[in-house]
Write a structure and sequence with these properties.
- With 153 residues, the chain is of the alpha+beta class.
- The protein is 39% helix and 14% strand.
- The chain is built from 5 helices and 4 strands; from the N terminus they run βββαβαααα.
- The longest helix is centred in the N-terminal third of the chain and has 21 residues.
């Protein structure tokens, strides 16, 4: 599903937002990186709405896009953005941490790794988990590790 986003150029970077989805924003040094940041922000905002049981707004058509209340800085550009794919493994780790009540700092301590490593492990846009790392996460959380492949719907 593609949403329209407003991309604004500042003095030293770019910023943007998706008018249809509250909280879907992005910022980066380049236009391309900002569009990637917007895609991640959009995915997170949609996930947040779903977790709170709120409806995900449908994308507006360009003709229906009303920017009057936002007053974007000139010059701005309208771009099309799809939500970035999120890694279900990272989301599962974060969910397990929440249910146990453990922070990233505590996970890092229990795994014997830096906080930045624990942050990467729980980053929903990181797709580099190894089975060895997942085993260490499970041990640190005191949970079983189950890996299975399921038939596609």
């Amino acid at each position: 599903m593609k949403y329209l986003a407003v991309l604004e150029r500042a003095l030293s970077n770019y910023g943007g937002f998706v008018p249809d989805v509250p909280g879907a924003t992005g910022i980066a040094d380049t236009r391309e990186a900002t569009i990637e940041s917007l895609a991640e922000g959009l995915a997170l905002a949609i996930q947040d709405l779903a977790e709170r049981g709120l409806p995900v707004p449908p994308p507006s058509d360009r003709a229906d896009l009303n920017l009057d209340e936002y007053e974007p800085e000139e010059p701005y550009e309208i771009v099309s953005v799809s939500p970035a794919p999120m890694n279900p493994v990272s989301l599962e780790i974060e969910s397990a941490m929440d249910s146990i009540g453990i922070t990233q700092a505590e996970l890092a301590r229990k795994m014997g790794v830096s906080r930045s490593v624990a942050s990467r492990i729980t980053d929903p846009f990181y797709f580099g988990h190894s089975v060895r790392t997942l085993r260490r996460v499970a041990d640190a959380l005191g949970v079983d590790l189950e890996i299975r492949l399921a038939a596609a719907p």
